[in-house]
Structure prediction request, 183 residues.
Amino acid sequence: MKQPHFPGTRASQQGIALVVVLILLLVMTLLGIASLRGTLVEERMSAATYDRGLGFQAAEAALREAEALVATNPTFPTGGCSLGLCPLRTNLNTGDLPRWEDPATPWRTVLADLDVDSDGDGTDVVSNPQFIVEAMGPAPNWVGCDRQKPMVSVCMSPKFRVTARSNEADRASVILQSSVSTL
Prediction:
């Protein structure tokens, strides 16, 4: 005689619970791996942001030192660039590189103290920020002053382009520029 079949008894189970648990375990593993990968990407992004901030601070310190140098009315060389000071270019060819892109341009290294080390281990110090100052010639101090008749005596003043960079090996590279005039 045949035994009656009741659902949920041992005889009716075919191992489907094992398959379901294995699938759920696989899904949970994939979710865990995806979240770890996201965490690693976020960590790299925050490290790059921190590194860029250090480079920006170093380049800004070089920019401020160069602007202070311009305020002292330094003597510019008559030939090529020397010690970060570049005279006015009189014969600019279309193929000439801007001075900040030209590898032959001598940059001046900053003398400021740039100890930005936050944890005391000496690894966060960004060294060797540099700058160049280019004479750009006389330019109007406000729009249209050079078209006035008669021209106001304080209308024109010498203009300078200051370019600062921080480009340590294996660090973020930052270039900043400003225009400065002296009266």
In short: The radius of gyration is 33 Å. Residues 29 and 44 are 23 Å apart (CA to CA). The helical segments are 16-71.
